[in-house]
Every structure is written in structure tokens, then in C-alpha cells.
Amino acid sequence: MDKVMDRYDIDTDAVMFAGNEDFDIGAVGAAQTPWWNRTLCAVNDTWVRLGVLEGDFHWHKHDDTDEFFMVLEGRLDIELEDRTVSLGPQQAFTVPKGVMHFPHARGRVVVVMIEQAGVVPTGD
């Protein structure tokens, strides 16, 4: 698992854009390579994060928070224990808290995630 975790470029320490600041999500995503994941902005007690993915993440869950995915580019399959949800551009899905899930990016995928501030993106 450590080798898998080493390939992730995830940072939760900083918010890229403050309130009252406009930004171009497409341009931010286009400038990144997989497995980049950052907090674009904070809305109350929620983070709006942007991920650039390619390939498989890993099985994980978030015990105390739901996780919302909206695909901007590419195709993302989210494997759950009982089914797989397939998302294309402009499609979204919320994984309820406590549910094991395994994101599979089919090629390069750019995805917006909305999560509770402080979430550990790699799971609990």
C-alpha cells in the first residue's frame, strides 16, 4: 500500500483561492498531472477540491463524512461493495459516509469533490 500512496500528490494544508476570488477550474485542472488533489476553496465547513486522476485509487471510506464527485473531464467508475457507478462529464454521485468505495479513472479524469473540511482524502 505504501507504494500506492507514494504516487498521490495530495495536499490538504492550504486553500488555493480565498472567498471573493474568481478562478478557472478548467485551467487549474489542465495544468496538473495525475494524482494531483487540492482544495480549491472553502465554503463554510466544506472543502471544494479538484482532483486529476488516472488509473485506480484504492478501497477506502470516510467514517464521518459524505463525498461528492462531479466529473468535469473523462470517465470515472466508482466501485462500491454492491455495484459500480459510472460517471462521465457533467455527471455526479455522492458516496455516503461509511461506505467503502474504489475510484477507477478510465484515462485522465478531472473531478470536483465536495467534502467536509478536514477530511483525509485517502480514507479513514
Question: What key phrases describe this protein's structure?
Answer:
124 residues, mainly beta, Jelly Rolls, 2 helices, 9% helix
Which segments are poorly predicted (pLDDT under 50) over 5 or more consecutive residues? none
Give me the CATH fold name: Jelly Rolls
For this structure, what is the CATH class? Mainly Beta
Strand tally is: 7
* SSE succession: HEHEEEEEE
Number of distinct helices: 2
Oligomeric state: single chain
Provide the domain count: 1
CATH architecture: Sandwich
> Using only CA atoms, what is the Rg?
14 Å
The helix content, as a percent range, equals: under 10%
Name the CATH superfamily classification.
Jelly Rolls
Distance between the termini: 14 Å
Which percent band covers the strand fraction? over 45%
Note the overall shape.
globular
Average pLDDT value? 91
Structure description:
It is built from 2 helices and 7 strands, in the order αβαββββββ. With 124 residues, it is mainly beta. The longest helix has 6 residues, at 25-30. Strands 1, 2, 3, 4, 5, 6 and 7 form a 7-stranded mixed β-sheet that branches. It has one domain: Sandwich (Jelly Rolls), CATH 2.60.120.
